[in-house]
Write a structure and sequence with these properties.
The structure holds two protein chains of two kinds. By secondary structure, chain A is an alpha/beta fold. Chain A is built from six helices and six strands; from the N terminus they run ααβαββαβαβαβ. Chain B starts with a helix and ends with a helix. The chains are: A alpha/beta, B alpha+beta. Bound molecules: iron/sulfur cluster. Iron/sulfur cluster binds next to helix 3 and helix 5 of chain A.
């Protein structure tokens, strides 16, 4: 994919690629705490049903995933594992940070054992605020991310600013 | 991104802790299997290290601590009303149930009592959070054994319970609704009829679960006689809740030692036990518990007394000096708070006793000699929540 990353493809082809990437996101579920249950509701429950957005929530390992949802509290003990699993994902990869804990530490802002924000260890594309965010909020985050992927120029991939829902 | 020295130190410490465990296991004979900290079968971030001999587990050790958030220390710097916001998130599936024992302990110290109406509504919400919690267990157990259908059913019907909790408290998940001396608000209009309907749905879920899962041959083959815990082992490890009742011990804090402030005595209900103590028994007891809970809720809904929702408490809450211990039967088992007050705005010390920590401490004992797939069944049927273990 060296050609794609250099951004030298003709425009229609880039758009086609973006479109197909946008609607075939494989998301690795990273359930860490309470938010994981809301993520479960969003991904596995018939009421919210994420598959209609073209998101497939069942990859068996991070090596097959394009998107990871970090949902919940990242503790200092967990942080090395988070980093390691993120490193195992193939590029291009996207990260949604779900819940106040993953965004900034949330209710544990003064705790001795919690990492205050997962963006200290891995780059985050979309922040979904809330404690926990409703499943709808997570879906909105995914839709916004898809919009971004649709517009994305691979050469610009790493230059963008994160999106904040809400 | 700058990495501070303390972060570096934390990283080094974590690596060292990992290395120690690995070393300890790998220097002996056989193969070491590492599950987690991120593994679908561990409900979060529990890490299990098992030493195998072929397919059989020789030694298996859970390594908690990946979700340690320091509740007990944080409680010392939050005022009493603020503490409920935190402790909601210990057992995140039954969040309202976590608030109740703490609030009751504070009420005990302040010598106030919630009005009868608040007590009954509190009990109803307590049971609703139990339903929300255990219904997820029913779905999750199916998923772990490879039957995904029941997972979808459980998530579908759980939403009806969550809707009711949300309608009453404003929060789907973390209501933060219990106050010292009562509740934050009264019930909304039409809530009672709607809750009756939700209870009907839950009972239907139970019937579906019974047909789809409990009667299933594969399920029975994988759970019957697997992970048997005898009653004396269960009590000596301090297990509680449905895990204990599944070993035949008839012990339920709701009936035996219900603290003042909850009104379980208004309803007519029964504690279910099972003599077998295996994974099947644990599932069966929980299923009956869901049914019983729906009946408790139904009865209490029809007997909510009129009256105020809050007792008279001062605006700025200062709890007089003293110590109090209150434990209730939470969805996962006995949960208690030991609150020490020095007459301040904040507690001097809060010790939290949560059920899951004791419930999974039996894992090394019960997994000796079982096969690897059975570890999954045993862990799933023991049913723990990581926040409840690590706190
Ligand atoms: S943001 Fe809130 S709900 Fe989510 S993991 Fe943190 S404490 Fe739990």
């Amino acid at each position: 994919m060296g050609l794609v990353e250099s951004g030298k493809l003709p425009k229609p082809l880039t758009q086609l690629l973006s479109l197909s990437r946008k609607y075939s996101l494989w998301v690795y579920q990273w359930g860490l705490a309470c938010c994981a249950i809301e993520m479960g509701s969003a991904f596995a429950s018939p009421r919210y049903d994420v598959m209609r957005l073209g998101v497939i929530p069942f990859p068996a390992s991070p090596r097959q995933a394009d998107l990871v949802v970090i949902s919940g509290t990242v503790t200092d003990k967990m942080a090395p594992a988070v980093k390691r699993l993120y490193d195992q994902m193939p590029d291009p990869k996207y990260v949604i940070s779900m819940g106040s804990c993953a965004n900034c530490g949330g209710p544990y802002w003064d705790s001795y054992s919690v990492t205050k924000g997962v963006d200290q260890i891995i780059p985050v594309d979309v922040y979904v605020p809330g404690c926990p965010p409703r499943p709808e909020a997570l879906l909105e985050g995914i839709v916004l991310l898809q919009e971004r992927i649709g517009r994305e120029d691979m050469a610009e991939r790493w230059k963008g600013d994160p999106i904040v829902v809400g | 991104m700058t990495v501070t020295d303390s972060q570096k130190m934390a990283y080094v410490a974590a690596q060292a802790a990992d290395a120690r465990v690995n070393l300890q296991f790998e220097t002996e004979d056989g193969m070491t299997l590492n599950m987690g900290p991120q593994h679908p079968a561990t409900h979060g971030t529990l890490r299990i290290v098992a030493q195998l001999d072929g397919e059989q587990v020789v030694r298996c050790e859970p390594i908690p601590g990946y979700m340690h958030r320091g509740y007990e220390k944080l409680c010392e710097v939050r005022t009493y009303p603020q503490v409920t916001t935190l402790i909601n998130r210990i057992d995140w599936l039954g969040s309202f149930a976590n608030e109740v024992p703490f609030i009751l302990a504070a009420e005990k110290l302040m010598d106030v009592e919630a009005p009868p109406r608040a007590q009954v509504i509190r009990t109803i919400l307590f049971e609703l959070s139990r339903l929300g919690n255990i219904s997820l267990f029913l779905g999750d157990l199916g998923i772990q054994l490879g039957g995904i259908t029941i997972g979808f059913y459980a998530f579908r019907d759980r939403e009806f319970v969550l809707n009711q909790i949300e309608a009453a408290t404003g929060g789907r998940f973390h209501p933060n609704f219990d106050r010292i001396g009562g509740l934050k608000d009264d019930l909304p209009k039409g809530w009672i009829a709607e809750t009756h309907r939700a209870m009907d749905r839950m009972r239907r879920l139970c019937d579906e679960f019974e047909e789809l899962v409990l009667g299933n041959e594969i399920f029975q083959a994988r759970t019957r006689g697997i992970g048997v815990i005898p009653a004396d082992i269960a009590t000596s490890y301090g297990m509680s809740g449905a895990n204990l009742r599944a070993t035949g011990v008839d012990w339920d804090l709701r009936r035996d030692a219900c603290p003042p402030g909850l009104s379980y005595d208004l309803a007519d209900w029964k504690v279910w036990t099972h003599p077998d103590g295996d994974s099947y028994a644990r599932t069966w007891v929980r299923l009956q518990e869901v049914r019983e809970s729906t009946h408790i809720v139904d009865q209490l809904l029809d007997s909510i007394p009129a009256g105020p929702i809050m007792a008279k408490v001062p605006r700025i809450i200062k709890v007089p000096e003293g110590e109090a211990w209150v434990a209730t039967e939470n969805p996962l088992g006995e949960m208690g708070y030991y609150v020490v007050s020095k007459g301040d705005l904040v507690p001097f010390r809060v010790k939290i006793r949560s059920a899951s920590f004791n419930n999974i401490s039996v894992v090394p004992w019960v997994t000796r000699g079982v096969f690897v797939p059975d570890v999954i069944t045993i862990m799933a049927s023991l049913y723990f929540i990581l926040g409840d273990i690590d706190r």
